[in-house]
Amino acid sequence: xxxxxxxxxxxxxxxxxxxxxxxxxxxxxxxxxxxxxxxxxxxxxxxxxxxxxxxxxxxxxxxxxxxxxxxxxxxxxxxxxxxxxxxxxxxxxxxxxxxxxxxxxxxxxxxxxxxxxxxxxxxxxxxxxxxxxxxxxxxxxxxxxxxxxxxxxxxxxxxxxxxxxxxxxxxxxxxxxxxxxxxxxxxxxxxxxxxxxxxxxxxxxxxxxxxxxxxxxxxxxxxxxxxxxxxxxxxxxxxxxxxxxxxxxxxxxxxxxxxxxxxxxxxxxxxxxxxxxx
Length: 278
Fold this sequence. Notes:
Helix 4 (about 55-65) runs antiparallel to helix 5 (about 75-85). The chain has two domains: about 10-85, lambda repressor-like DNA-binding domains (434 Repressor (Amino-terminal Domain)), CATH 1.10.260; about 90-115 and about 155-275, Endonuclease, Chain A (2-Layer Sandwich), CATH 3.30.870.10. By secondary structure, the chain is α/β, with parallel strands linked by helices. A hairpin with a 4-residue loop joins strand 5 and strand 6. The longest helix is centred in the middle third of the chain and has 17 residues, at about 140-155. It is globular. It contains twelve helices and six strands. It has helices at about 10-25, 30-40, 40-50, 55-65, 75-85, 90-100, 120-130, 140-155, 170-175, 180-195, 245-260, 265-275; strands spanning about 105-110, 160-170, 200-205, 215-220, 225-230, 235-240. The termini are far apart.
């Protein structure tokens, strides 16, 4: 059996693979034995260890569970986030680490459908627009799209999180990518509302000054029932775990839900837009 010698200095992916091989062999596991533990094939493990296939968020989380490294300083998920950090807003990888384990996710957005609900075509239009503005490179755009797909896939776990999404009316009225792209995105929202673990509401323009937020907000309830918030400026994302500042935001989110349309009325508004009626 040919054994490829690894060079951790060659690239972050090869450094990841070399560490994975070292820890696996220290446990006495073959690639096939380890593959069975993490839910992948032996061929996949070989490809990750030799740097031929980059690790994914799901892979790193399964690996951390197997090695007992979840939420530790040496977790594979932490290393994976550092590998991917170059194309992401500072602070966002830290947030995603919490998002993947949250029991409840509450979101409010303005102007743009939130990433977890975006279709690939809608997300691609936004990424390509950022490339044209010179904000990111084409490679970074592709990394962002891959990262988004992994975040979306990570929600399909054994115990589904509850997702509460409140969209400012501007999100569904702002045309992105042309009629076909926007129609498919609106269909995706309707499908999202039909799931058992979701609640979709539209905050209509008419609520006026009763809308408590002037910027996008995300609130995560973690398995231990603690609540954290996440918000972004143009240059950085901010994770806040301090109850004195987070709990008033949770109260404000409940107030927002109270003045927003019901899910039934929200879906009706979306379907009216699809038909071209006001």
